[in-house]
Design a protein that fits this description.
Blueprint lengths: L9 E8 L10 E8 L6 H11 L19 E4 L2 E4 L11 E5 L5 E4 L2 E3 H12 L12 H5 L4 H10 L7 H4 L2 H5 L5 H13 L7 H8 L13 H5 L6 H18 L1
Parallel strand pairs: 1-5
Antiparallel strand pairs: 1-2, 3-4, 3-5, 6-7
Bound molecules: iron/sulfur cluster (SF4), FE3-S4 cluster and FE2/S2 (inorganic) cluster.
């Protein structure tokens, strides 16, 4: 006997729409209905909505594999990567909004790149060597595997911005550098090729816009899609900075 065709859920996507580039546009919630397909991700759902229902809907995807960090959005109130979120794990009603804190481009698309670039320039998140000339021998010198592994772990950050959007301090204080930045400082502190001292790092993040502004709310740690050990890194950095502060 032929089996009865499988019936799929009817999903309702409630999406916060707003295009700041249009002078007469107003923020509003727009609802779209879509039949759920097996294995459907939010990337697939939003693409289908854009292709079949509303070509004006704005959102960002590049890799669709949790690597590029471009698809962060608020999904039922939680910052997450849309390409890694399957509709199956949500109820019939799915609420989508752009990540807060970042500049809104339109609808679900935000300019995390501009924020990350600003943070990176302010905190100089690259290896600093004292030599005037590049010392390739030192750059290429083998690293202790355990240390390399520790650095690699922190380097897995994809700059998606979820930790910043999920942080109460970042939402209240425009200049707070966020967990993404503290993770980067922790990473460069570990790097034996970086000649900066604890005093130099203290100059960069030893204040209320840095490690002392963090109120240990831990939203960052809970929402990071790469499960970076943000809680441990921030606590460690704070201890180091307290020690450095009492020295200076
Ligand atoms: Fe995204 Fe995690 Fe990096 Fe924050 S630390 S930007 S949540 S990957
Ligand atoms: Fe924010 Fe994370 Fe600190 S959520 S307050 S950076 S522990
Ligand atoms: Fe690249 Fe989601 S599209 S992380």
């Amino acid at each position: 006997m032929a089996s009865a065709p499988q019936s799929h859920r009817k999903l309702r996507f409630h999406i916060l729409r707003y295009n700041p580039a249009k002078a007469d546009d107003e923020p509003r919630i727009q609802t779209y209905e879509l039949e759920e397909a097996p294995g459907m991700t939010l990337f697939i759902a939003l693409t289908e909505i854009r292709e079949k229902q509303d070509p004006s809907l704005q959102f960002d995807f590049v890799c669709r594999a949790g690597i590029c960090g471009s698809c962060g959005m608020m999904i039922n109130g939680r910052p997450s990567l849309a390409c890694r979120s399957v509709t199956q794990s949500f109820p019939d009603d799915i609420w989508l909004a752009p990540l807060p804190v970042f500049e809104l481009i339109g609808d679900l698309s935000v300019n995390t790149g501009k924020w990350m670039r600003g943070m990176s320039e302010k905190l100089e998140t690259w290896v600093h060597m004292k030599q005037e000339e590049l010392d390739f021998k030192r750059i290429e010198a083998p690293m202790d595997p355990a240390l390399a592994e520790e650095i690699y772990e922190l380097d897995r950050c994809i700059e998606c911005g979820c930790c910043v959007a999920g942080c109460g301090t970042a939402r209240m204080r425009e200049d707070f550098v966020g967990a993404v930045a503290l993770n980067k400082i922790a990473r460069f502190r570990l790097d034996p090729r970086d000649d900066r001292t604890d005093e130099d790092f203290y100059e960069l993040v030893g204040d209320d816009n840095g490690v002392f502004g963090c109120m240990s709310l831990l939203g960052c740690h809970d929402v990071c899609p790469k499960q970076l050990p943000l809680q441990t890194q921030i606590a460690f950095l704070r201890r180091k900075m307290v020690a450095q502060g009492t020295k200076g």
